[in-house]
Amino acid sequence: xxxxxxxxxxxxxxxxxxxxxxxxxxxxxxxxxxxxxxxxxxxxxxxxxxxxxxxxxxxxxxxxxxxxxxxxxxxxxxxxxxxxxxxxxxxxxxxxxxxxxxxxxxxxxxxxxxxxxxxxxxxxxxxxxxxxxxxxxxxxxxxxxxxxxxxxxxxxxxxxxxxxxxxxxxxxxxxxxxxxxxxxxxxxxxxxxxxxxxxxxxxxxxxxxxxxxxxxxxxxxxxxxxxxxxxxxxxxxxxxxxxxxxxxxxxxxxxxxxxxx
Amino acid sequence: xxxxxxxxxxxxxxxxxxxxxxxxxxxxxxxxxxxxxxxxxxxxxxxxxxxxxxxxxxxxxxxxxxxxxxxxxxxxxxxxxxxxxxxxxxxxxxxxxxxxxxxxxxxxxxxxxxxxxxxxxxxxxxxxxxxxxxxxxxxxxxxxxxxxxxxxxxxxxxxxxxxxxxxxxxxxxxxxxxxxxxxxxxxxxxxxxxxxxxxxxxxxxxxxxxxxxxxxxxxxxxxxxxxxxxxxxxxxxxxxxxxxxxxxxxxxxxxxxxxxxxxxxxxxxx
Lengths: 261, 270
Description:
By secondary structure, chain A is of the alpha/beta class. In chain A, about 35% of the residues lie in helices and about 25% in strands.
């Protein structure tokens, strides 16, 4: 039984098909990069995973549960921008990750103290403890995205969805964020979906890379067919396949030796 | 250097700011001199020292008949009406604006109603208000409310709609209910806008207040101005007009200061 199951997803807006015939399953702890040209439905796919939209056909389930009808706590999300609350301080933003799930959105007494400690721990981990009392607007783009990731993690989602999280960052900050995300991935074993334009980024971070494209094209009616997953790469060894084939099938080693002789 | 790139230094900026006031004052003094030279009994443009002595009398000397200082009584009555009208409008428009902005169901049923309502000229409703609510305080407060609530509601609901969808989605993914999103995401971001809105609507609120007081009242700043108009007492009218301007400026300044102190996150990016 796979962790996330995507079953025959179609999504159309009116007559325009965006994605079609998507059948795919994911295991827990996978880091999936989703790449593709602009307008090929990768962001739509992410919105479907997020349950921000309901598919026209098919269903998506997490851990065998019922398909979600609206965004919920199982799914954490980080967008390219606007993912943090500008009116809350950095620490309050992290506390919101647990506090917003209460009746009125406020934690009191010991729950608040505990959330505060957890928030400070999280800030330490994402390297923002020195700006805990500042407001997000005074942080750099990279720091804001780290905060957004920290906030999403504080709510302990089952899957984390990243929609071009580093799209608006400069190349240097991007590299730092890659290291940060790789560390986080090793520590938490969280299932992550990341939409990106950048192929290198996709292969560097993901251990699986999905490519969305339109395999069918009607020149008279370009909106008729949608995109689907055209490639599903194993990127676990830096994107170069068969690197560990000898470890997996030791019997092949003898044959390669024979062939070499 | 291009004109659009010429930025005045601080001292010259202050000087530039005082120039229009100064010019107005000079124009008034010159006009007043000319008219008084022709006719010393002229009441239309009283001399500055006449206005000064009248102001002193109005502010500090009690009325001979009632033994009360009328200006303060008028000020008090008008400010109570104004603050009640604006306060109630702010509350109504905040609640309606949040509901319309956040809930698609409410948006479908209310938003066109509110925009049509804001087209009704409030002063045309004044007779109706007098008939329904009588000539007392209530009709004046209600006029202010009817006058400014619809457009404040429209603006606030638009501001709620302007909150990026990303934030609302994010709040949902960390488990926030509709109530929590309203209280902790929308409300704090809309409050500074509410204050800005109140500042903008104060001008119209004064207009409606003075109109209502002029038509039917026995105390109030607008009532007094329209009363002494019969005696062509320009010195009293001008004193009251300047006093109303000072009051309006002071209220605006207080609101601006509150907004700056209460919402530090607004300026964090600057």
